[in-house]
Structure formats: C-alpha cells, structure tokens
Design a protein that fits this description.
10 helices; 7-stranded parallel β-sheet; elongated; Alpha/beta knot; Helicase, Ruva Protein, domain 3; alpha/beta
Amino acid sequence: MIPVRIILVRPSHPGNIGSVARAMKTMGLAELYLVAPEKFPHEEATALSTHAQDILNNTVVVKNTVDALKDITYVYATSANSRDVDVNSFSAHDAAVDINMKIRKNHKTAIIFGPENHGLSNEELLLAHALIQIPTQKEYHSLNLAAAVQIIAYELLLASEAGGELATVPELEGFYAQLEKLSESTGFLDPKRPGQLMERFRRLYNRAELDHVELNILRGFLKAVASKLDKVDI
C-alpha cells in the first residue's frame, strides 16, 4: 500500500465518500480521513464503495483539518487556483513524484481535498506545504471529488512503481570508483591535482537518491563511454 493519507474536508455527499474509497483501493491507497462529513456512515457510501468497504470501516472521522493532520510531516492541498497562498504548485504527475521522494525520506504525507461546492478555504490552504492543481478547460472546470482523487491516486501508483529501492552504499561506492577511473582516463580528472571533483560528484549523486535501476543506467552509460574510447576497461 502507498503510505499517503487522503483527507476529505467537509464532504457533503456520502456517495462521493464511497467513490473515493473505491478510487483509493484500485490504486493502492488505504488511509482515509474525513473532516466533519455531513453524512457518514451512510448506505450510499457503502453502495458506491463496491469492494472498498474495508477502507470505509477504517476511515477516521475528525472535527477539524488540524486533527486530520496529526503525525503528518508534509501536506499537499488540492486547489483550482493558487489564490494568495505563496507555496509551490504541482501538477498531479509532478506532485506524485515529489510525494514519492518525501516517502523515501520518511515523511508522513497527506493530501487534502476540499468540499464539493467551493473547495478549501484560504486558512486550510495555508496548512499545506504545496498545492496540487489539475488543469481543466475554462468553460467547465468543475471536477468531481472522486475523479480528482482518482487522477492523483493513479499518478501516485505510477510514481511508486517507477521508483524502486534506493541503491546501497557499497553499490554507490562501486559507481564512484568507476566514475573516478573514467574521469582519469579521459583527462577530466588529474590524479595529481584532483581538487574536490570527486567530492562534488558524490554530493551531486547523493542528493539524487539513486535507486537500483537508475544506478545501473549510469554505470551502463559509463561502461559504454569507456568502450567507445577504447582506453579503459571499467
């Protein structure tokens, strides 16, 4: 399961809650919080959840949005426009990539969705570290709550499947040794006067938090370059 909390603020239609639960389950999300729902539990929510009744059974109901953010360290809020809130704004795709990175850093993340009729208030948007915006056509920009959750949940699933386990320290050390050897063989690095080149390389790639697949791509690239140069076997 993807460890992201979905928070619905003051949802007015119980059917939307059930549809959100269904959207979450199909994409590997399980943690649902409701802030002051008008009707919950409700038979319509159960009916539209299909096989996601377990998510509804474990749904947490709280009185305010702050309570829903208990133990959360990074918050994303959905909004049709940024209004006066000065925070980073992401598309659903870019937000999913960013969330996946936050999860790797052990952040407990949540996404807040506003009421169906008018969205989140400015005060609620100010609780967020970043906004997620789903573009729509200008003539009709009303997006159903469950549809919005489905779009973002889909991107979260893709991002989680794309990013594998992080490379280990020994794997990274092998890469740095390969990079240093190639740098010396091309004359890019002078072993007598190395300066801080390799230290800077390390800082650069450590910040990238490479996973196994990404590291193998880089090592394959270095090996291909060395083969073309026909100067060094790495």
